[in-house]
Amino acid sequence: MPSLPATPAIRAPRWLAPAFFGGLLLLGAWLVTDYGVSWDEPVDHLNGLVSLRHITTLVAPEWAARQPLLQQVPPLAGYVDNDHGVLFELPLALLHTTLRSGSDLRTYYLWRHMATFVVCVGGIWALYRLALLRFRNQYVALFTALLFVLSPRMFAESFYNAKDLVFLAAFTLGMYTLARLLERPTPGRALVHGLASAVALDIRILGSMLVPFTLVLLLLEAIQPTQQRLKRARLGASGAVYLLSTVGAGIAGWPYLWAAPLDNFLQAFEAMRHFRWQGKVLYWGEYESAQDLPWHYAPVWLLVTTPLSYSLAALGGLLLQIRQVCTRPRTVLGTYTGRLDLLFCGWLLGPMILVIGMNSVLYDGWRHLYFVYPALLLLAVGAGVRLWRWAGQATRRRRIMQAAAGAVTLEMAFTAVRMALMHPQQQVYFSFLPTHKVEQWFERDYWGLSYRQGLEYLARTYPQGPILVDPQHIPPFENNRALLPPADRQRFVVSETAPGRFLLLDYRSQAGTVVTPTGWEVYRVTADGLPILSIYQHP
After folding, report:
1. Bridge partner residues of 91 (DSSP)
2. Cα 351 from chain centroid?
3. DSSP calls for 269-298
4. Among 501, 334, 532, which residue's Cα sits nearest to residue 427?
């Protein structure tokens, strides 16, 4: 009978992991003020305020009536986005209502960005712990976490993407608690895992995918135990505790479900399957409807925005795992580490297959599937560990391993340099495509963060009097104007006809370089040589 893995075979100095995560938090505190406000943040914040108004009206109506901010938002019933999970947004909405400078959005957004980053660091910690359970080596586990940090888009979006990156963190935590439950199935660990699953569910409905992952693996443990003396009754109790805690905490943390839990959950799931966004996306130089995308849309976006060595290593790890399942299924299905590898494969492929099979609406790259990225890194690192073991003491094999390790190290160093040079616009990182191809084939700054840099340039260059502007898109302009000092905010005046106005032209879905029939370019925001905002002055 296979036994559980022992304690980590290789331990790092006790100070190393705290230093890594402490340093990461300090880095975030240093950089947090550099990033702009993304396109979706005001809408996400409104979702939180709507649910906060709903809750406080039920439990503290007098307090709610005294909050001007809450009285300005619509009620939950009939609100267009009432089916969005708001667990992360609720405490931020409460924070905004209690800030002394409640009308100062700049203060709120800085707190919001720091909170987002702290949660994402928690997700990196969960990835580290998950890698530690799988590889039993603290150096390898920290290396896995470092790969995530050296993923430019993930790093940048960890400050402001409270939808996809916060969900990635929550889902990774759910996978870690699942791995702990599989390591030692007890009702206590099942309760913790149920709460983690509920957190992921209450941020995004795709968190419900943790339920089938858990039940299948518990059933497999009941059929073919990896532990001696494990009673099926304890497995059954753990499964029951898990389901009850997931359902109970999931409903409690999502106000939209309170009125009709099952019906509203099914409606939210259907809305996720066929999201209501009707726009077009620039993909391979063509404008494609988000309602009818090619099946390869998400995989291609993943490939071109992920460091190439990470993707190749993950592909190798995936192929090795498939080969092992076909040739030695008992090794995979009958051991704890084998089941973790199988879980990582399902984590990476399952959501991809699901959205392709349902022809789900996707836009802004592959961000809706970011939560599979930790699985990609775990498979990539797993491939590296297998290569190391395969090399052994054989000279020729060790040379192959050393060449592969050298290539990965060089790309990591090159990626770190690129991240520093692109700061704070790493959200438009493309791994290996030349700039002139990216300009023609793919969307660029769909978050609208480059508006901040453009507005700061205008405020700095024209320090006195009004500044007349004509933004291509109003939402990112307004979002990033909120970060300017109050005196500068008031100087910006939107006008579509005034002579001498500045045209702010972004590249959300613009192929090529923007050229206006009149006026001249006075400023351009670039990232790694890629234009992401042009400012023209009209005669």
Report:
1. none
2. 14
3. HHHHHT-S---EEEETTEEEETTS--TTHH
4. 532
CA distance 509 to 447: 11
> 205 forms bridges with which residues in the sheet?
none
pLDDT tens-place string over residues 351-409: 999 989 988 888 899 999 999 999 999 999 999 999 888 887 677 888 888 888 899 99
Per-residue pLDDT at 101 exceeds 60: no
273 band by pLDDT with thresholds 50, 70 and 90: confident
Distance separating alpha carbons of residues 365 and 347, to the nearest angstrom? 19
Q: How far lies 478's CA from each of 23, 37, 42, 142, 530, in Å?
A: 33, 9, 10, 40, 24
β-bridge pairing 467-471 and 492-494: parallel
Judged by DSSP in three states, 172 sits in helix
End-to-end CA distance of the chain: 81
In the chain, pLDDT over 70 holds for what percent of residues? Answer: 97
Does the pTM surpass 0.90? The reply is: yes
**Count H helices, E strands: the chain?**
23, 7
Element (H, E) at 229: none
Average pLDDT over residues 259-278: 84
In three-state secondary structure terms, 493 is: strand
Taken in order 324, 177, 85, 370, the sign of the CA dihedral is: negative
Phi and psi, residue 534, nearest 5°: -120, 140
Least confident of 120-129, 196-205, 275-284: 275-284
Across the strands, what pairs with 535?
Answer: 504, 523
Q: Are 219 and 274 in contact (CB under 8 A)?
A: no
DSSP per-residue string spanning 111-179: HHHHHHHHHHHHHHHHHHHHHHHHH-BHHHHHHHHHHHHT-HHHHHHTTT-TTHHHHHHHHHHHHHHHH
Which residues is 217 bridged to in the sheet?
Answer: none
pLDDT tens, 247-260?
Answer: 999 999 999 999 99
Around Cβ 130, how many Cβ atoms within 10 Å?
28
CB 507 within 8 A of CB 533: yes
Chain centroid to Cα 41, Å, comes to 14
* pLDDT tens-digit readout, 485-526: 999 999 999 999 999 999 999 988 777 777 776 789 999 999
| 20 pLDDT above the threshold of 90 | yes
Contact indicator for 426, 419 with CB cutoff of 8 Å? yes
Instruction: Give the C-alpha separation, 57 to 70, whole Å.
Output: 10
pLDDT of residue 1: 34
Average of per-residue pLDDT across 56-62: 93
**3-state SS assignment for residue 11:** coil
Measured distance CA(377)–CA(360) in Å, rounded: 25
Determine phi and psi for 19, rounding to 5 degrees: -65, -40
How high is the pLDDT of residue 4?
A: 42
